[in-house]
């Protein structure tokens, strides 16, 4: 089926829905790509397969309960969700958390960024058919998971925050261990940066793919590494510094190419910056209390603020009506607005074969498991594709462009499951 | 701090001929709330966009009551610029939940508008994509889960079981 | 394997058909226990369980060396691993995947949300735990469970298959258009309906498993 499509659909117009079997986060999307021959001419998005109604559920829970609820909006960036919510609640309650708690929140956020970027690096490499890199980066990610587990007692959903502060302290012993692990991690990351910059096949799949200029990115409101890869100076840690980053500032990583390769480079360089930041801050972490008292009822009011999650700006809008429960909690995650960018701009004009990498490039928490892909022709001759098949289609397509005979490729044949 | 004030004053000046009320919230010094009439939303967004002020963070809606006790929907267009957040806000009465689309100005607003349509039943005139974004395919028409009148799980669960 | 086949040929059944059947059955169950193929479906999870499940195939845990393989198509899978509370939108798809799997099929529900809905239990778009929709064989608790707990969950399931298979009972049809399967103790159901034994007994083994993996978790 894959090969047929490459050969036979030179002039037909197809609609290619991708999704919705996403093992990804809050926003597993169902994309519909309309293609003319190879080229995507239109794109649309459908979410909701993991829509649970968290925003409504938050209205019937207490402030403390909502903290643990929103941490489970996304298991990958749970600390960012928790921080974004609780800093709004603290602003409403009018309390200032101790500086040591602020810094610990910032450190936890940076450790989370390391884990998330390594996860993404592996998954994105997998989408491009680069499984060795997937295995290596996930092996090294386990070091970060060990740090998280030593620190907070859980590998995922570690709940660093409590209302009014943090629950765990950074001990000198832990800091010492952390430094050793970060040294090793830095060495590995340098290697990955070399691979991304120098590897010929990797560059063939990423350089000048999915390019979006600075102007258009700004207009569409892209955030996070996606925006910074096009040279937009937009980083909430710098623009609107929140817990910890107002005491010790962090540097912004920029690249001006705006293509897929730039997104790899920006994320990897951000990892170096995170490591540097954690090292620096561990030296001068302020002494003091870990938390202050948090009231059960919060005065009526509104608060909106953002956190720089690994994927971009995570925005929370919280309203209080003076009771124990929030009146409204609005969550805008980074992947949603970046998806808006991709769907409305980047995808158009690119080859269908590049879609897996382009979608992975914005880091929509892609996990490399099964997703269904519907290929619906105009004459209703529907074909069903899994995400896996689209991925292979992309890999095979590029292999053929390079002159390899894909049918000779024994590994792909073995992996063919249908 | 003066930097923040400059940004806020800048936003206020762009919207000066449209705004009905301007509020500087006390608990967050980097915010400005500009209240406009529902029909002026598009003009307000265009004013900010034409002056290259910030980017659209999101569109939020919430169910609330007005000062005289009438239920209404609050609609907030959040714009971020540097250290500040500028919110263009309006109120829609429950029986007249209609607002113009801003997708022809900012294309990526379509996902936020679809969300407001679906969860709050706000009719957005001219929005390009009216398909479902979040709720299940067989969700009943006219049931908007984020309204306060929606009692949540029991209703939806009951409906689900009866219909099958 | 040789042992198994030896055993089968010495003990022939009354008719030819059942000999072939029993041989095929034994080979099947042997291969199933030694190399279960699993499909993963996220029915509304926060991603925490999913990334932990994915670490199972990466070098630190590497369950492929134990013969466990994560793969994409439900038609090739023995085990369905479900993460997360079941949302209304993904419910039909979950049932469809379950029905596409060949018999006999087994289900593992990962995480607190898979058991009861977890923190999302009263959200308007959440149907409940996985057991409210399809029959579950093994629950693995935790938020999210550690990878070791997940491996233990699979091992528990394999022990269960091994034990259940010796009785030579085929599992009954398990197509549930609108399943409302109460979680009953295995003893009562198996006495009345032996054909549905395995599909209806999420309780005894799974509770035991909950305890073991909880212990491991802490």
Write out the strand line-up for the largest beta sheet of chain A, numbering strands in chain order.
Answer: 3-2-1-9-10
Give the N-to-C terminal Cα separation of chain C. Answer: 38 Å
Radius of gyration of chain C: 17 Å
* Spatial order of strands in the largest sheet of chain C: 2-1-3-5-7
Unreliable spans of chain A: 1-11, 19-27, 366-384, 407-418
The CATH class of the largest domain in chain C is: Alpha Beta
Q: What is the CATH T-level topology of the largest domain in chain C?
A: Rossmann fold
Order of helices and strands of chain C: HHEHEEEHEHEEHHH
Mean pLDDT of chain A: 77
Overall body shape of chain C: globular
List the topology elements.
The complex is a heterotrimer of chains A (418), B (164) and C (218).
Chain A: H1 2-8, E1 13-18, E2 30-36, E3 39-46, H2 54-58, H3 63-71, H4 78-93, H5 99-127, H6 131-152, E4 161-162, E5 165-166, H7 172-198, H8 200-206, H9 214-220, H10 224-228, H11 236-239, H12 260-283, E6 301-309, E7 312-320, E8 326-332, H13 334-346, H14 355-361, E9 372-377, E10 383-386, H15 387-401, H16 410-415
Antiparallel strand pairs in A: 1-2, 1-9, 2-3, 4-5, 6-7, 7-8, 9-10
Chain B: H1 2-14, E1 21-23, E2 31-35, H2 41-50, E3 55-65, E4 71-81, E5 84-93, E6 98-100, H3 110-120, E7 123-125, H4 153-163
Chain C: H1 2-10, H2 16-34, E1 37-42, H3 48-55, E2 69-70, E3 79-83, E4 86-87, H4 88-100, E5 106-110, H5 111-116, E6 126-128, E7 138-140, H6 147-165, H7 186-192, H8 204-217
Parallel strand pairs in C: 1-2, 1-3, 3-5, 5-7
Antiparallel strand pairs in C: 4-6
Helix pairs in contact in C: 1-2, 6-8
């Amino acid at each position: 089926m894959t090969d047929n499509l490459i050969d036979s659909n030179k002039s037909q117009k197809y609609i290619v829905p991708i999704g919705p079997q996403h093992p990804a986060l809050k926003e597993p999307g169902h994309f519909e790509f309309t293609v003319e021959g190879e080229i995507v001419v239109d794109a649309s998005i459908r979410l909701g397969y993991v829509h649970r109604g968290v925003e409504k559920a938050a209205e019937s829970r207490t402030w403390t309960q909502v903290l643990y609820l929103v941490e489970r909006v996304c298991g990958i960036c749970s600390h960012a969700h928790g921080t974004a919510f609780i800093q709004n609640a603290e602003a409403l309650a009018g309390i200032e958390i101790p500086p040591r708690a602020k810094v610990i929140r910032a450190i936890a956020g940076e450790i989370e960024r390391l884990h998330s970027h390594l996860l993404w690096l592996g998954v994105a490499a997998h989408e491009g058919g680069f499984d060795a890199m997937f295995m290596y980066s996930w092996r090294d990610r386990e070091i970060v998971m060990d740090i998280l587990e030593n620190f907070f007692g859980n590998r995922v959903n570690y709940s660093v925050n409590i209302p009014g502060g943090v629950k765990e302290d950074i001990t000198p012993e832990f800091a010492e261990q952390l430094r050793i692990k970060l040294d090793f991690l830095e060495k590995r990351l340098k290697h990955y940066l070399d691979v991304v910059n120098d590897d010929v096949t990797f560059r063939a799949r990423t350089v000048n793919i999915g390019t979006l200029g600075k102007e258009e990115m700004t207009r569409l409101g892209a955030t996070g590494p996606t925006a910074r890869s096009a040279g937009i100076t937009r980083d909430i840690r710098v623009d609107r510094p929140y817990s910890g980053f107002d005491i010790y500032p962090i540097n912004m990583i920029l690249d001006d190419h705006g293509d897929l390769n730039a997104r790899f480079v920006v994320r990897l360089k951000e990892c170096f910056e995170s490591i540097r930041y954690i090292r620096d801050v561990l030296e001068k972490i302020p002494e003091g209390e870990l938390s202050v008292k948090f009231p059960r009822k919060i005065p009526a009011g509104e608060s909106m603020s953002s956190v720089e999650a690994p994927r971009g700006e995570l925005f929370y809008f919280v309203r209080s009506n003076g009771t124990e429960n929030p009146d409204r909690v609005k969550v805008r995650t980074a992947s949603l607005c970046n998806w808006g960018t991709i769907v409305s701009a980047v995808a158009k004009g690119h080859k269908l074969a590049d879609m897996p990498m382009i979608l992975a490039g914005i880091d929509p928490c892609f996990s490399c498991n099964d997703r269904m892909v519907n290929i619906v022709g105009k004459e209703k001759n529907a074909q069903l594709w899994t995400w896996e098949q689209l991925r292979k289609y992309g890999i095979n397509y590029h292999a053929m462009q390079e002159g390899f005979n894909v049918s000779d490729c024994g590994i792909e044949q073995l992996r063919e499951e249908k | 701090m003066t930097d923040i004030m400059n940004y806020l004053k800048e936003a206020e000046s762009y919207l000066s001929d449209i705004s009905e009320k301007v509020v500087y919230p006390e608990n967050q010094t980097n915010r400005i709330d500009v209240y406009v009439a529902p029909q002026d939303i598009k003009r307000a967004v265009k004013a900010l966009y034409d002056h290259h002020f910030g980017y659209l963070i999101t569109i939020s809606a919430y169910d609330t009551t007005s000062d005289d006790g009438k239920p209404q929907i609050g609609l907030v267009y959040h714009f971020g610029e540097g250290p500040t957040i500028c919110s263009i806000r309006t109120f829609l009465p429950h029986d007249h939940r209609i607002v113009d689309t801003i997708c022809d100005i900012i294309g990526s607003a379509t996902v936020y508008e679809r969300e407001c349509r679906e969860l709050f039943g706000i009719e957005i005139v001219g929005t390009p994509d009216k398909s479902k974004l979040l709720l299940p395919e067989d969700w009943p028409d006219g049931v908007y889960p984020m309204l306060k009148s929606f009692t949540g799980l029991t209703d939806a669960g009951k409906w689900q079981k009866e219909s099958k | 394997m040789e042992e198994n086949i030896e055993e089968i040929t010495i003990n022939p059944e009354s008719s030819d058909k059942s000999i072939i059947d029993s041989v095929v059955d034994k080979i099947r169950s042997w291969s199933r226990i030694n190399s279960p193929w699993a499909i993963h479906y996220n029915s509304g999870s926060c991603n925490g369980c999913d990334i932990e499940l994915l670490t199972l195939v990466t070098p630190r845990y590497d369950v492929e060396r134990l013969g466990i393989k994560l793969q994409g198509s439900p038609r090739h899978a023995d085990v369905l691993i479900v993460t997360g509370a079941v949302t209304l939108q993904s419910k039909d798809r979950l049932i469809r995947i379950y029905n596409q799997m060949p018999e006999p099929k087994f289900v593992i529900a990962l995480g607190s949300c898979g058991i009861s809905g977890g923190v999302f239990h009263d959200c308007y778009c959440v149907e409940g735990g996985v057991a409210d929709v399809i029959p579950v064989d093994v629950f693995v608790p935790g938020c999210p469970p550690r990878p070791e707990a997940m491996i233990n969950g699979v091992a528990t399931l394999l022990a269960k298959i091994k034990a259940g298979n010796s009785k030579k009972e085929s599992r009954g049809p398990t197509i549930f258009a609108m399943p409302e399967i109460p979680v009953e103790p295995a003893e009562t159901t198996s006495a009345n309906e032996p054909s549905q034994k395995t599909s209806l007994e999420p309780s005894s083994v799974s509770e035991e498993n909950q305890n073991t993996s909880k212990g491991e978790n802490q």
